[in-house]
From TrEMBL:
Family from the record: Belongs to the ABC transporter superfamily.
Taxonomic lineage: Bacteria, Bacillati, Actinomycetota, Actinomycetes, Pseudonocardiales
Protein name per its UniProtKB record: ABC transporter
Family matches, as InterPro entries: AAA+_ATPase (IPR003593), ABC_transporter-like_ATP-bd (IPR003439), ABC_transporter-like_CS (IPR017871), ABC_transporter_ATP-binding (IPR050763), P-loop_NTPase (IPR027417)
Location in or out of the cell: Cell membrane
Sequence ranges assigned to domain ABC transporter in this UniProt record: 16-246
Membrane topology: Peripheral membrane protein
Classification via PROSITE patterns: ABC_TRANSPORTER_1 (PS00211), ABC_TRANSPORTER_2 (PS50893)
PANTHER family (UniProt xref): ABC TRANSPORTER ATP-BINDING PROTEIN, ABC TRANSPORTER ATP-BINDING PROTEIN NATA
Keyword terms, alphabetized: Antibiotic resistance, ATP-binding, Cell membrane, Membrane, Nucleotide-binding, Translocase, Transport
Provenance organism: Gandjariella thermophila
Keyword Transport belongs to the record: yes
GO cellular component: plasma membrane
Location, primary (coarse class): membrane
Amino acid sequence: MVAATVRDVTDVCPLVKAAGLVKRFGPVEAVRGIDVEVRRGEAFGFLGPNGAGKSSTMRMIGCVSPRSGGELTVLGMDPDTDGARIRARLGVVPQEDNLDTELTVRQNLQVYGRYFGLSRAHLRAKAAELLEFAQLTDRADDEVDPLSGGMKRRLTIARSLVNDPDLLLLDEPTTGLDPQARHLLWDRLFRLKQSGVTLIITTHYMDEAEQLCDRLVVMNEGRIAAEGSPAELISRYSTREVLELRFPPGEQPPVEPFMDGMAERVEALPDRLLFYTADGEATLAAAHGKGLRPVSTLVRRSTLEDVFLHLTGRSLVE
């Protein structure tokens, strides 16, 4: 019987599996015993406020930061002993673009590919393919500096694909981009997932997570607060709809009179009340019946952002 190769194993096993994973920095425990599985071909997200442990987890998966405790396998291998072999099959998109501004767009792809031992002939063809994928063919021989932020981000993603990775790690891939650039990048990432590339994404954009992620975890203070698909998390931790009632400054009523029976949960913000409810229109009618006269009303569906804020709070974490 022929022994199974590592690639054969990862075809049926999770590409990433963590059990009781811990990361410490001196006395600070940044990741506190989390369990995670990422399946082949899916887009998996890490959400959480600053300091939640997302980046520390990504660095351990990317084999650039050793774990302090627990178990971790990536592509069927142990990062402690097989880090170089794992990194050869990873694509990494860092939070900040780190392109070589002294090279052209095309040269950034070709030179980076040489680090993986790829031939010049292969890289010429691969660079042309990736330039088309990133919609940068007409800028191939331009220097990097004059490119827009969206173009630089697309080039960074294209560069991460030069070695045909099995697993692509993206750390806040669209931060700082305008809406058009974000949507173009979402399209590129969706195409990658459709082609079989497994994605692990950290993001602060809840709509991005809803658009891209098949499953995700919400991290808070180094632990996993919730796990599931976006739809599952919304169903589990929020309501079908949210009614927003806005009031003039200083005229917002207290929450307490409306806590009984009007909604599953009521939240007061400086300029509005949020009613989490199964039927926003019925709750609005009940609010009018209790004498509430807001300056504006909005009935909307619950979103992943509602879940995120419910699980992690609204206080700013530095």
